[in-house]
Amino acid sequence: MKMSTLDTENTTARPSFVSRNTDGRVVLRVVVSPNAKKNGIVGLHQDRLKIRLNAPAVDNKANKALVAFIANLFHVSKNKVTIVQGQLSRQKTLHVVSNTEPNWADLAPFAN
């Protein structure tokens, strides 16, 4: 997936489930479906990016798989991705420390 350099003035290309907070971190709102056959982005659900993970929702395995999936999406190390809300829920909010973002158009139709 192509990466684009962040232009803090251009937020129009960012989908509704993504924002930047004041310290520059990417705020990503997702809903997770664990125990899937394979990992992947499958669409939008209630203004959140829906992600399927093949990890079970036990022993923090789904959360670890989500962090790895998002780190891969942003091309950052896993320690740059933090679940800040929803550790025990399917709906989660993550912070990603990154100067670049995925090319959201590559995720179409999910990114709009």
Description:
The protein is mostly beta strands. The protein contains one helix and eight strands. The chain has one helix spanning 61-74; strands spanning 3-5, 18-20, 26-33, 40-45, 48-52, 81-85, 91-96, 100-102. Strands 2, 3, 4, 5, 6 and 7 form a six-stranded mixed beta sheet that branches. Strand 4 and strand 5 form a beta hairpin. It is globular.
In short:
The chain is mainly β. 12% of the residues lie in helices and 35% in strands. The chain has one helix spanning 61-74; strands spanning 3-5, 18-20, 26-33, 40-45, 48-52, 81-85, 91-96, 100-102.
Rounded average pLDDT: 85
Helix/strand order, N-terminal first: EEEEEHEEE
Output the number of helix runs: 1
The oligomeric status of these chains comes to: single chain
Number of strands: 8
Secondary structure: helix percent: 10-25%
Biggest β-sheet, characterized? 6 strands, mixed
Backbone structural class: mainly beta
Low-confidence stretches: 1-12
**What radius of gyration results from the CA coordinates?**
13 Å
Backbone shape: globular
